[in-house]
Amino acid sequence: MLVIVVENVPPRLRGRLGVYLIEARTGVYVGDVSKRVREMLWEQVEFYIQDGNGVMIWSTNTESGFDFKTVGKNKRMPVDFDGMKLVSFSPETEKNDEKEDSRKA
Question: Which domain holds residue 9?
Fold first, then answer.
């Protein structure tokens, strides 16, 4: 099983994903493809992503039963925690910096 979720990507990328996977919802692509096709699709996502972001999740033989990769700007970042991949939230530096600047003034 493979799931790719993309946001704010060009129509060209959506079309390429739609050839191999079913678009269950806008930007959510699901399918059952080989490792070779999965890697080719991820190369396409990385190449055409532009200002968007995406995540690819696939079934594999790990503790959690799946693995994932991300690309593009996003608050959620994958972190390896003792061999288990978890998601960490990045701090919102822009908003925090603006609050600190307004307090100094």
Answer: 2-74
